[in-house]
């Protein structure tokens, strides 16, 4: 259940550090709230145990209803991150406050070529749009609804979008990640989409049977927003790397390895996705009781 997922969210580690680093993109927008009752108190401002219990009960009832979209949204966030091949970097996650040397892990990393990395960006963007629609009661193919609301993204949603652009766009693909996204959408075939690991995991949860045409159409509608996100928010590659260098020791000639390490050792979509869904559930539960 969603309460257990929120209770189990880590309070530290590489994922948390990577998200905290993005505070400069959205100052004060994200706090790493863990514990479902803590989330209820944070969202509602209520401290009365009786009210917290009522909100909890209603939120769990809503989440348990399979006809609602909350379970599907959480599954999408989890599947996106689990599609990345995780390697044995548990020790890295515990080195909070220390410099983590990337060089010692190079032999375990396999950087992707630009085409594969762009495909991952495409699929994560589609997954985000569909999960947002499920969380907010849209059928999932309402990418227009997503694009109508994305400009007002805040809190967990905004920090997740920032991570998507920075860690899956800017670092692996460079400042022209938007141009590479556009070029990819013009050249990707159905076979390219079907061969993507993330697509293979989430296909069954996508609208229209997960048709590649749906994927390409959806990202086509989002490409302007995604491609312009970094520039509009003043995010530069040098600025991001300067902040990352505070806790990860890497060479700027090995950014493909840095991207691979972050991809394989963080689960920012699952972490913030669980927080987003729980917030939405709690806000709805409060409104209903």
Q: Which outline best applies?
A: globular
What is the tally of beta strands? Answer: 2
Average pLDDT reading? 85
List SSEs in N-to-C order: HHHHHHEHHHHHHHHEHH
In order across it, which strands form the biggest sheet?
1-2
Summarize the amount of helix as a percent range: 55-70%
Rg, Cα atoms, Å = 19 Å
Distance between the termini: 20 Å
Q: Count of helical segments?
A: 16
Structural class based on helices, strands and sheet pairing: mainly alpha
Tally of discrete structural domains: 1
Fraction of residues in β-strands: under 5%
> Major beta sheet, specifics?
2 strands, parallel
Question: How would you describe this structure in keywords?
Answer:
289 residues; mainly alpha; 16 helices; 1% strand
Task: Describe this entry's structure for a reader.
The protein is mainly α. It has one domain (2-288). It has 16 helices and two strands. The chain has helices spanning 2-7, 14-21, 36-44, 49-64, 70-82, 90-93, 114-135, 143-150, 155-173, 177-187, 190-194, 197-202, 212-232, 237-244, 255-265, 268-288, and strands at residues 100-101, 248-249. It has a two-stranded parallel sheet with strand order 1-2. The protein starts with a helix and ends with a helix.
């Amino acid at each position: 259940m969603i309460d257990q997922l929120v209770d189990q969210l880590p309070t530290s580690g590489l994922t948390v550090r990577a998200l905290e680093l993005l505070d400069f993109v959205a100052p004060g927008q994200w706090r790493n709230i863990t514990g479902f009752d803590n989330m209820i108190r944070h969202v509602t401002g209520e401290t009365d145990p009786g009210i917290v219990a009522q909100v909890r009960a209603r939120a769990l009832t809503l989440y348990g209803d399979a006809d609602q979209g909350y379970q599907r949204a959480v599954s999408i966030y989890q599947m996106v991150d689990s599609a990345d091949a995780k390697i044995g970097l548990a020790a890295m996650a515990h080195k909070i406050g220390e410099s983590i040397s990337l060089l010692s892990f190079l032999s375990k990393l396999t950087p992707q070529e630009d085409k594969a990395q762009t495909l991952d960006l495409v699929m994560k963007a589609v997954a985000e749009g569909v999960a947002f629609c499920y969380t907010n009661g849209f059928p999932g193919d309402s990418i227009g609804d997503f694009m109508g609301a994305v400009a007002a993204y805040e809190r967990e949603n905004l920090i997740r979008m920032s991570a998507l652009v920075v860690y899956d766009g800017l670092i692996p693909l460079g400042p022209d990640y938007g141009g590479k996204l556009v070029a990819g959408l013009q050249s990707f075939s159905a076979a390219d989409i079907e061969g993507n690991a993330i697509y293979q995991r989430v296909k069954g949860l996508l609208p229209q049977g997960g048709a590649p045409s749906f994927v390409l159409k959806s990202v086509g509608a989002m490409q302007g927003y995604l491609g312009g996100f970094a520039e509009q928010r003043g995010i530069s590659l040098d600025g991001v790397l300067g902040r990352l260098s505070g806790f990860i020791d890497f060479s700027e000639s090995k950014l493909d390895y840095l991207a691979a390490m972050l991809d394989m050792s963080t689960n920012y979509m699952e972490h913030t996705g669980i927080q987003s869904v729980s917030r939405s559930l709690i806000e709805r539960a409060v409104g209903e009781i």
